[in-house]
Write a structure and sequence with these properties.
5-stranded mixed sheet, alpha/beta
């Protein structure tokens, strides 16, 4: 039996047994204890309880639940949650398993895993380390490098990331940082896709990477709309029968769409509110439009329908409820969910530094992506998270999504 990472913890060690006691309904209670820690996630073997329960009561994670002796319980609480099961060897014996959770140092861990660094480049690197801890395993061994201060190209690269099994790293326009070079080396990368033209990422960055032995392929167009289309061509997803359309300037909805694009290889085409600047391939027969008519007009939908394309609009009353609608539309995904800041860090332009790397991790974890308001508890987001056995990842530090906001969401 294999442990699935849940709430950042895994079953690891055992604690001493407690004495027997009388059961309220007659018979004896056998007390067993286990400690669940955050260390060594991915242990392959189920863990037995202690003392007389050993061999009869064991636990393992699966499907977001903690399983005991073949029975499925609710998720394990943070400390001292007890589960009672009847002994498999005696009808006069009741086993009570007490589960403790700690982080290896005796502290109760957070109910989520935060991936963050000192800079936006560092956060993308931490995402890469989480998704590819042992380096790249694909035949091509490729990495996607996107401009750090403009999210449009990186969002359109979601399907490329999924197809190539490639993390998305960030760079500033004029120079590639040494930390990024170090991560390329750790990943044992062989090829780097540069997104955008020489204005987005200067020729000097391409030359530096080539001089270090990387095969460099630049994917670009004269506009962000053409760049997105060419990214889809490179990914081989332009032949798909399904496509995603999101606004290329108000990019929050493209963040919500990026998980589907990465996991299922669905190409993202960027649009203006009132028109689609590039023609969709003739293979496209159905389209998911992310966002309401304020970002993609009904006129665009009508144009698509007039060409015989079926349209499914995925939208809520705001970007956060649209994000929830996108998460619910993502069928068959795991219990993993990635929370990203859903409001630009810049008041004068769209800038989502941590979120642009999220789609690559969504592909690796088969995870939904959910937008979170950086300082408000959105009621719909809280309601969506509550009552679900999510394994939660938070991208970015306190300045992006604070502990108070996460606490307000019930995490």
């Amino acid at each position: 039996m294999k442990f699935t990472k849940f709430l950042g913890v895994s079953v690891l060690a055992l604690m001493a047994a407690l004495p027997n006691a009388a059961h309220a309904n007659g018979g004896n209670i056998g007390y067993c204890e286990m400690t669940i820690t955050k260390k060594d996630v991915g242990i392959e073997n189920a863990v037995d309880a202690t003392n007389h329960c050993k061999g009869m009561v064991y636990g393992y994670y699966g499907g977001g639940n903690f399983h005991i002796t073949g029975l499925t319980t609710s998720v394990v609480d943070y400390s001292g949650q007890k589960f009672e099961v009847t002994s498999l060897t005696s009808s006069n014996m009741y086993e009570v398993l007490t589960v403790y959770i700690e982080d290896g140092s005796g502290k109760v861990p957070d109910a989520f895993t935060r991936l963050s660094g000192q800079t936006r480049l560092d956060t993308a690197i931490e995402v890469s380390k989480e998704g590819w801890p042992n380096g790249l395993q694909s035949a091509e061994k490729s990495v996607i490098l996107a401009r750090a201060d403009n999210p449009a190209d990186a969002l359109a690269a979601s399907s490329l990331s999924g197809v190539k099994d490639a993390p998305i790293l960030l760079t500033y326009s004029s120079n590639v940082d040494q930390s990024v070079l170090n991560e390329l080396a750790r990943l044992n990368a062989k090829k780097v896709y540069l997104l955008g033209g020489s204005v987005a990422i200067h020729q000097g960055v391409e030359t530096k990477l080539a001089n270090k032995g990387y095969v460099v392929e630049r994917i670009s167009g004269s506009t962000r709309f053409e760049t997105a289309a060419r990214i889809n061509e490179e990914a081989g997803t332009s032949n798909n029968s399904k496509a995603i359309i999101a606004n290329g300037y108000s990019v929050a909805d493209a963040l919500s769409a990026s998980a589907d694009a990465a996991i299922n290889g669905v190409p993202i085409y960027l649009a203006n509110k009132g028109d689609l600047p590039v023609n969709l391939p003739s293979s496209v027969t159905s389209v998911d439009v992310y966002g309401g008519s304020a970002v993609i007009s009904d006129g665009v939908v009508s144009q698509l329908k007039s060409k015989g394309i079926s349209v499914n609009r995925i939208a809520g009353s705001n970007r956060y409820t649209t994000s929830i609608a996108g998460a619910e539309n993502l069928k068959g995904s795991s219990s993993n969910i990635i929370l990203v800041r859903g409001k630009s860090v810049n008041t004068t332009k769209e800038d989502y530094p941590d979120a642009v790397a999220a789609s690559a991790l969504a592909h690796k974890l088969d995870a939904k992506i959910l937008l979170v308001h950086p300082w408000l508890d959105v009621a719909e987001t809280k309601a969506y998270l509550q009552g679900k056995n999510h394994n939660v990842y938070v991208l970015g530090g306190e300045a992006a999504i604070s502990q108070d906001v996460l606490k307000g969401l019930g995490l």
